[in-house]
TrEMBL record:
The UniProt record lists the keyword Transmembrane: yes
Membrane topology: Multi-pass membrane protein
GO cellular component: plasma membrane
Keywords: Cell inner membrane, Cell membrane, Membrane, Transmembrane, Transmembrane helix, Transport
Transmembrane segments: 12-40, 60-79, 100-123, 143-162
MF (Gene Ontology): transmembrane transporter activity
Cellular localization per UniProt: Cell inner membrane
Matches recorded under InterPro entries: DctQ, TRAP_DctQ
Organism whose genome encodes this protein: Harenicola maris
Subunit structure: The complex comprises the extracytoplasmic solute receptor protein and the two transmembrane proteins.
Protein name in UniProt: TRAP transporter small permease protein
Amino acid sequence: MLERFEQACLSVLGLGLVVLMLAIVAQVLCSALGINPLLVFGRAWLLIGDAVTLNSLLDFQWHLLVIIGLLPAGLVWLMDRHVRVDFLYDKRSDRAKARINLIGNLLFAVPFFVLVLPAAWGFMLRAWRSDEGARNGGLNDLWLIKAVIPLGLGLLALALVLETLRLLRAAR
């Protein structure tokens, strides 16, 4: 069941990559053809405002890149598909590998999350309180995308806690 969930998440994110590529192609084509704005609405919509412009397509690409890159980080960590320094790790026993991972988590990941999670939360809250939006015809309601940062980091921190508990058992 967990494997199906992992696969579904990765499939959705893979679809997100396709959407990202289509947005890039659309922006390049519309820019080359001098089409701007692409769509104009009679009223403002959440996130996109009252028009889809070249700038909002560019903002959308950056936002989608954040979602695709950050939300699956915890899942990738739990699936043990993250980057590591293999020359320290490769020919070790399972117990030694667990100890190396545990030391890495405690020395590097925990201090990182202690510093970055409050900062990410404050970053999102400032955008929400000020109703931050693009000034150049880009996307509005930037707190929505900025909320992905503490969400993704929180999911990664949760994965780190789960992995650290597993490593404590394996290192004994």
